[in-house]
Amino acid sequence: LAGLRHPDGLARVDPGKLLRGTLRPYQQAGMQWLYLLTRLRLGACLADDMGLGKTIQVLSLLLVLKAEPGHTRKQCLVVAPASLLANWAAEIARFSPNLKAVVAHPSAMPAEQLKSDCAETLADADLVITSYGSLARVPRLASTPWRLVILDEAQAIKNPAAQQTKAVKALKADTRIALTGTPIENRLGDLWSIFDFLNPGLLGSSKQFSGFVKNLAERPQNPYGPLRDLVRPYILRRLKTDKSIIADLPDKTEVKTFCPLSRKQAALYQQAVDDLSQQLE
């Protein structure tokens, strides 16, 4: 538990020359933390701010697992929004070309091949990458026992009743990892749904969790402290604003750019406003 709560002090694991890049100290600590949880077969939520390199930490972990002595080859699966599939492929080519990755999605593979038994195509891969929408449409993904299932933008499963959430939670995996910069997007129930995927039962059923949270809200001081203590070993969050994490990142610069309407656009806009005003009157 001490190691999970303070990953900086964990035993160092290193992908070495297999990683075509250099991990920052906080990324090294994050990878060590993920490795410990993976070895313990516990689910992990890496909730670093956007831009702190969650992807490279996961790729480093996969390289370490692949290089382990006595490694028995068992594939890993990444599930991400369709818009990020190309980004995953590019990051793998850049940082970890030793990982054999296959994108199981209509944008990279014929739809007929995906619907049929695509076992031969996926068999040689270390890592299979697919989208949330493709899970239910590719039977092979649901039936495969995975070494690791990694969810990118894991807030996509915040709604327990959604079909894609049910498809994700039905996956068979030794260990599960969620990547998200917003583990709580709208309400605490979002966190419950992610943890129901990572470590089922840790936060009880949805009904039990709702009652637990309601009781916490009535506490006079530090109301959600017990919930933080409960999830802290399984969630790691670092912020870009924390100078102890990353000191050489410049502050965000905002530039306002005004885009005025053309004369024709302005005339059409005014006509629409006038028409609507007449209808309302």
Protein architecture, described:
The chain is an alpha/beta fold and 281 residues long. Helices cover 42% and strands 12% of the residues. Strands 3-4-2-5-6-1-7 form a 7-stranded parallel sheet. Strand 5, helix 9 and strand 6 (172-179) form a beta-alpha-beta unit. It is globular, with a radius of gyration of 22 Å. The relative contact order is 0.13.
Summarize this entry quickly.
With 281 residues, this protein is α/β, with parallel strands linked by helices.
Features:
42% helix; globular; alpha/beta; 12% strand
Topology:
Elements: H1 2-5, H2 25-39, E1 44-46, H3 54-67, E2 76-80, H4 85-95, E3 101-103, H5 111-115, H6 119-123, E4 127-131, H7 132-135, H8 139-143, E5 145-152, H9 163-169, E6 172-179, H10 188-198, H11 206-217, H12 225-231, E7 235-236, H13 263-280
Parallel strand pairs: 1-6, 1-7, 2-4, 2-5, 3-4, 5-6
Structural class: alpha/beta
Question: What distance lies between the first and last C-alpha atoms, to the nearest angstrom?
Answer: 67 Å
Helix content: 40-55%
Strand content: 5-15%
Question: Could you give the order of the helices and strands?
Answer: HHEHEHEHHEHHEHEHHHEH
Which regions have little confidence, pLDDT < 50, spanning 5+ residues? Answer: none
Q: Which geometry do the CA atoms define?
A: globular
Average the pLDDT over all residues and give the rounded result.
Answer: 90
How many beta-strand segments?
A: 7
Q: Number of helical runs?
A: 13
Q: What is the alpha-carbon Rg in Å?
A: 22 Å
- As laid out across the biggest beta sheet, the strand order is 3-4-2-5-6-1-7
Main sheet properties: 7 strands, parallel
